[in-house]
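Deviation from plan, reported transparently: zinc ion complex.
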Amino acid sequence: MSIQDPTDRALLTARALVLADLRVHGVESPEVVTLVEHALVERKWWVEQWPEGAAYVPGLIAQDVQEALAEQGTVWPPCPLHDDHPLYIEPELGEDPDWVCEKDAVAVAELGGLAGGRPESEQAAEEDA
Ligand SMILES: [Zn+2]
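Because the crystal trials were delayed, the predicted structure below was used instead.
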C-alpha cells in the first residue's frame, strides 16, 4: 500500500485507531486482528467507489469490528460508566467519531482515544467496589 493514496491513508488510520482501542481491553488477539483486516478489505472497496467517504472509514471500521465481536459474544468496548452495555460510535457516518454512552448520552472518548484512560483515582474506586 502507498500511504500517499488518500484511500490507503484512511484505511491505515482506521486500522491504527481501532487496534489501539482493542488493545486497551486486551482483545487484540490474532483472530480479532483478522476481523479488523477483513473489515478493512471490505471498506477499501466501499471507499474506492466513494472517495469522499474516506474520512468516515475509521468510524465504519470500528462499527464493523464491534458487530463482528458481538456475534462472538464479546462486548467491545465496554462502557466505563455502566457494566451492562458497550459504547457506540457517534456519528455512525461522519468524521472524527466518538465512543458514546447512549444511556447517559455522553462521549466517553474519541475513537482511538480509549487508551487515554481514566483518572487513577476512579480506577482505584472501582477496584474497591
Ligand atoms: Zn454507559
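Helices lie at 6-24, 30-49, 57-71, 120-128. We consider this an acceptable substitute for the interim report.
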